[in-house]
Amino acid sequence: MKKRALISVSDKNGVAAFAKELHELGFEIVSTGGTKKAIAEAGVPVIGVSDVTGFPEILEGRVKTLNPLIHGGLLAKFDDSSHQAQLEKHQINPIQVVCVNLYPFQQTIAKPDVTVEDAIENIDIGGPAMLRASAKNHAHVTVVVDPIDYETVITQLKENDIVDAVTKRKLAAKVFRHTAAYDAMIAEYMTELAEEEQSEKLTVTYELKQALRYGENPHQKASFYRKPLGSVFSIANATQLHGKELSYNNINDADAALQIVKEFDGPAAVAVKHMNPCGVGIGTDIYDAFSKAFAADPVSIFGGIIALNREVNAQTATKLHEIFLEIIIAPSFSAEALEILQGKKNLRLLTIPFEGNKKTEKRLTSIEGGLLAQDYDTYGLEEANITVATTREPTEEEWQSLKLGWKVVKHVKSNAIVVNNSDQTLGIGAGQMNRVGSAKIAIEQAGKAVEGATMASDAFFPMNDTVEAAAKAGITAIIQPGGSIKDQESIEKANEYGLAMVFTGVRHFKH
Ligand SMILES: NC(=O)c1ncn([C@@H]2O[C@H](COP(=O)(O)O)[C@@H](O)[C@H]2O)c1NC=O
Asked: In what residue span(s) does the MGS-like domain sit (predicted)?
């Protein structure tokens, strides 16, 4: 009996050539409608699945290969006499090679004008059934889901007449990853469609974007995966114009920088070190903004990651060029700016689209043995929640400054304190185990500029010691969530020093 190959693919790239090789190796080719046509057009003999099953493709292709005359051939063990006898009894031919790829569900739902009907029709049923059957029976069947593997299969068949067991197992594992990812994508789409907020299972899928040289430290192995159809405003969607490959730490820091710069509509520049901002500046143009971000902390910016929300021009590039930086991310670079910055061999220059940066994804954080899923902290200041707790109201300039501080403090690791003026940060205290410790760091870093500056705190003051430290340093206004049982003590302390203190009613922990 002739060996049989079953080919049914949506992505028809290379399939005719693959079929031709199989034919020349003595295989009888069996195919579904469109695939059969593509193969026949290339002059390769091919028989239709309907000729095998004696049943037409029905329901506009919803049922074509779902038939025991096909699945019996995929699932029978070739070395099992009972299975062989059953195949003979029912006149089923065994299938040695299966080549299937699926309806383009992902590409379909990526279309902006996709209808639910269109999405549903692109859920492949028969394909995954054939893939899973063949992969289950991989001891006997060679199954190819990825056109990249056509060559390996043909080479091995030509050299040894068989595909070796290790390759067959790898191909089968690839199939199960493929069908699992395919179903995860459908599950995500359907869950959204059904407006289910919290599901009993989380089935997300990611694809390898980059094999990383190492993780947080050189002894840790690491990879970078991207979410298919994920947010476009993402480091996973960046185009690298220049410089060394991104590292694990670069990616985390770049993500942190993007989350901060996203807070601003006007020209803004953000410098990040170890996922905390070390300088944030806003200005009349991007040069002005970057100059302020740089001046905010000209020491910590060394080796930092910079995100800017306007095109980098020559003037800004010249200033950026003076500093040792790891990465610069912007919507674009002018040709002149690019030329200036490309002078630095290792400096990574990235662009990402700043448009369409709406995020509906969940932030996933892994813990050993589990995963935490939460919304991104996209909450801004809501007028309705804001109260001025002190006798003195902030001045107009203080308000501007408090709003800037509040935008930044959200992105600083808790306990977080930001000291700033109306267009730049001056001191940032991050990740201390007590709030007054962060305040002292921020105040010290601000130096003389603390005089007349404002302070933002990501969470309420459990005691009045931070207010006291701020007032003594020369801070004139504070923004914080409020809500401590000792709020009154902090208010009294602020009143005593003539400070204005605003409660936001919302906290911004970040761990
Ligand atoms: N329903 C079935 O029996 C069935 N059998 C194979 N398919 C899919 O049909 C596609 C190929 O179709 P065609 O050869 O007609 O272009 C493949 O992506 C394959 O996964 C099916 N379609 C979807 O469910």
From this structure: 1-145
For residue 268, with 0-12 CB atoms within 10 Å meaning exposed, 13-18 middle and 19 or more buried, which class applies?
A: buried
What CATH number is given for 238-351 in this structure? 3.40.140.20
**What ipTM was assigned to the predicted interfaces of this complex?**
0.91
| pLDDT of the residue at 381 | 87
Q: Is 111 a catalytic residue?
A: no
**What percentage of the chain reaches a pLDDT higher than 90?**
95
Under the banding of pLDDT at 50, 70 and 90, the label for residue 383 is confident
Active site residue 274: yes
- Nearest residue to 127 via CA among 90, 156, 98: 98
- pLDDT tens for each residue of 402-426: 999 999 999 999 999 999 999 999 9
In the chain, domain spans? 4-193, 238-351, 381-503
Please tell me the pTM assigned to this model: 0.90
Instruction: Tell the CATH superfamily of the 4-193 domain.
Output: Methylglyoxal synthase-like domain (3.40.50.1380)
Considering 274, 344, 359, 362, which one is annotated as catalytic? 274
Helix (H) or strand (E) holding 405: helix 396-409
Identical fold for domains 238-351 and 381-503, yes or no, is: yes
- Please check whether the domain covering 381-503 is classified as CATH 3.40.140.20: yes
Pocket of ligand 1 from Cβ distances under 6 Å: 8-10, 32-35, 61-66, 100-103, 124-127
